[in-house]
């Protein structure tokens, strides 16, 4: 018995015109009706041009996407009936990219329906294992299908499709711009500078050493934060420049990150945990330890802010402070190391 034959004698695994497993009728097959493009070369060329036009328009829309993304300000608003007021930049890039994808899909479907072979083929059932002869037959069928698709012969379709697909990833690359500008030194630097007053957070009142009792803690920010009117930039700078100011007996200070960075036992440290950036202000007067509430990283503020417990990888940055002529606390300079999470640190 031939290996492609079924015990019933039906080479397609069917009996009386029905599939043996599902019982669904498989015979007789509908006679194949040639399409107009199969018998009329002009119709075939017309369909080929239609497909190539859609692929070509897809390429042009990708270029339009890039132009719209760059040229249309993201603050420009337009009014669309029914929808209302929308961002013109978003509408333009969404329309061009979406229509570009749609045209590639429609072009591929039109190509398959009009130009690729549509004759149904019945494949004989066979064992799950594939002999070498069948593998060669499959390979031959694949090559024949590739040849019949016209991909090699129909150069205008092949070139226009390759052009559309080549440009397709461009919007994905361009959209990376929306991730924001490169950070540069923005993650390293704060707005602290020499002579900037320490002011209380929220109330923005200048601080004197006498305002802080022994063992006390004050949350503070730089006074020049008030000069930043743009809300987003203000929040960004606040997130980096916020500090805590503590006072301890000068005799309890074991070490500092710089010489004479305190004023009569008053020290200032970044408020941002060096583990994952959580705000810290849980201070224990007796041990001089600062605890981060998120993951329990603990820093000894009497000993240069070193980590004594928890997952933080480096000490809490210290801000050098002194006082002005009126006795108000001011910064001696900015931080001399990156503030915030350790993965921002370089080198």
Description:
The chain is α+β, with helices and mostly antiparallel strands. The protein has two domains: 14-179, no CATH class; 198-344, Rieske [2Fe-2S] iron-sulphur domain (Rieske Iron-sulfur Protein, 3-layer Sandwich). It has seven helices and 15 strands. The strands form five sheets. It has a five-stranded antiparallel sheet with strand order 5-6-7-8-13. A hairpin with a 5-residue loop joins strand 11 (298-300) and strand 12. Helix 2 packs antiparallel against helix 3 and helix 2 runs parallel beside helix 5 (155-167). It is elongated. The relative contact order is 0.09.
Number of strands: 15
Give the H and E element order: EEHHEEHHHHEEHEEEEEEEEE
Shape: elongated
Helix percent band? 25-40%
Give the distance, in angstroms, between the N- and C-terminal Cα atoms. 75 Å
User: How would a crystallographer describe the biggest sheet?
Assistant: 5 strands, antiparallel
Mean pLDDT: 85
Q: Treating each run of at least 4 consecutive H or I residues as one helix, how many helices?
A: 7
Spatial strand order of the main sheet: 5-6-7-8-13
Uncertain parts: 1-15
Given the helix and strand composition, which structural class is it? alpha+beta
What share of residues are in beta strands? 5-15%
Whole-number count of domains: 2
Determine Rg (CA atoms, Å).
Answer: 37 Å
Pfam families: QcrA_N, Rieske
Main location: membrane
Transmembrane segments: 51-70, 90-109, 161-180
InterPro entries: QcrA_N (IPR045603), Rieske_2Fe-2S (IPR017941), Rieske_2Fe-2S_sf (IPR036922), Rieske_Fe-S_prot (IPR014349), Rieske_Fe-S_prot_C (IPR005805)
